[in-house]
Design brief:
The protein has 231 residues and is mainly α. Helices cover 70% and strands 3% of the residues. It is globular and about 50 Å long. This is GntR family transcriptional regulator, transcriptional repressor for pyruvate dehydrogenase complex.
Length: 231
C-alpha cells in the first residue's frame, strides 16, 4: 500500500530532474520561457497534475517561476549548485506540528493584510484556486493538495507584498512534501475547502480581523488533527 505514494514521489523527483536537464541542454537562463504545462506533460508523457507537482518542487527551489497569465519561466536559482534538498523522507507528526505552528504565526497576519489591500491579481488567484479545488474534490483528483497550497499562496499575494509572498513560499514550497503529508493526514477535503472559502469571503469583503481569525482557526484545526494522530 505504501509503495504507491513512494512511486509518485519518485516520479515527481525524476520529472523535476528531467526539467533541470532540459534547461541545461537548451542553454536557458533565468527569465527565459519554458514550454506550457500541457506541452511539458506531453513531452514527458505524464498527466498534467503530475507535471505540475514536479514543477512546484522546482518552484520551491527557485528553479522555475510560474507567472499568472503569462507562463512558466526559468527561475533565478537556475545554475546554482547549493540549494535545499527537495527529496526528503516522510516527516513524523512532531515535525508536521512544528511546521504548522510556524505557519500559524505567519498566515493569519497575511490574511489580515490581504483583506486590507485586496490586490486584484492575488484575489483572482484565490478565486481560481477555490474553483479548481471544488472540481478536484468532486473528481477525487489527488493533486488537490497542490491547489490547496496555491490558495494559501494566493491569500499572501492578495496582500500585495512580494517579500511576504516569498516568505510564505519558503515555507510551503520548500516543505512541499511535508504539506502533502499534512493534507493526507487531515483527510477531510470538504471541511478544508469550507475553511478556505471562509478566509476568502473575509478577504473579499475587506474584513481584516475576521480574515485573521478565519486563517488562525483553520490552521488551529489542522494542528489539532495532526496532534490527535501523533504517536
Amino acid at each position: 500500500m505504501s509503495s504507491v505514494p513512494s512511486l509518485r514521489r519518485n516520479l515527481s523527483g525524476d520529472l523535476a530532474q528531467a526539467v533541470v536537464a532540459l534547461v541545461e541542454q537548451e542553454g536557458l537562463r533565468p527569465g527565459d520561457p519554458l514550454e506550457s504545462l500541457k506541452a511539458l506533460a506531453a513531452r514527458f508523457d505524464v498527466a498534467v497534475p503530475t507535471m505540475r507537482e514536479a514543477l512546484r518542487r522546482l518552484e520551491g527551489l527557485g528553479l522555475v517561476d510560474f507567472r499568472h497569465g503569462s507562463g512558466i519561466y526559468v527561475g533565478i536559482n537556475a545554475g546554482r549548485r547549493v540549494l535545499a534538498n527537495p527529496v526528503q523522507s516522510r516527516p513524523d507528526a512532531d515535525q508536521l506540528v512544528e511546521l504548522l505552528e510556524a505557519r500559524r504565526q505567519i498566515e493569519p497576519s497575511l490574511a489580515m493584510l490581504a483583506a486590507q489591500v485586496r490586490d486584484e491579481a492575488g484575489i483572482a488567484l484565490m478565486e481560481e484556486s477555490l474553483a479548481s479545488a471544488q472540481e478536484q474534490i468532486a473528481s477525487g483528483d489527488d493533486a488537490l493538495w497542490l491547489t490547496n497550497l496555491d490558495f494559501h499562496r494566493a491569500v499572501a499575494a492578495a496582500g500585495g507584498n512580494s517579500v511576504l509572498v516569498e516568505v510564505l513560499d519558503s515555507i510551503v514550497l520548500v516543505h512541499a512534501e511535508d504539506q502533502r503529508e499534512i493534507l493526507r493526514l487531515h483527510g477531510d477535503a470538504s471541511a478544508d475547502y469550507a475553511e478556505h472559502a471562509r478566509i476568502a469571503e473575509c478577504v473579499r469583503r475587506g474584513d481584516p480581523q475576521a480574515a485573521r481569525d478565519a486563517a488562525y482557526t483553520h490552521l488551529d484545526h489542522v494542528v489539532e488533527v495532526i496532534r490527535a494522530r501523533r504517536g
